[in-house]
Sequence to fold (205 residues):
Amino acid sequence: MGSGSHPFSIAVGDLNNDTHLDMVVTNSGKGNIGVVLGYGNGSFANEINYSIGLDSRPQDVILSDFDNDNRLDMFVTDSIGDRISIFAGLGNGNFTIDTTIWTGSGSQPNSLASGDFNNDNLLDLVITNQGTDSIGLLLGFNYSVVGNKTVYNTDNFSAPASAAMGDLNNDKRLDIVVCNFGTQSVGVFLGYGDGTFAPQTIYAN
Fold:
């Protein structure tokens, strides 16, 4: 953080297993992620930075245990580099860069969400691609091994900016909802429970 950092997104979790909440921040102006460990009394340690590379713009960050080792891992979107950077958590507040997922030329990924879309007990990823008016779905994430990416269009000039998930129609299957910044609408993708989704239904503001 600090001058020129332009923090864009934040996530909270216990990164070093001390039962105190910590936070990670995307510093979009400096091309890095700031990790700030909490003391449990409302104060925090000094920021530790992890670079995602030159000419990068980290935007969204999520924390979850994607490799089932009981340690939180970190996924970061890079809207300039058209990629997702994956940092493996070591369980002590430190991370190591693990791999990078290419999201396609001009995709400009800017938001992430995770959930189990096909009921295989593995976390899956949904990525909003603002530059290509789409969302990308990565099923069966088994850390560093990514299944085929499925792309769902969100309409021309929609520029999706954010995604969330939940069971919107009470059928015990996760659905995806997307904010379409460019068309000033919300798109809903109803899930079938097998990792596939119905075409987008638009709700205009």
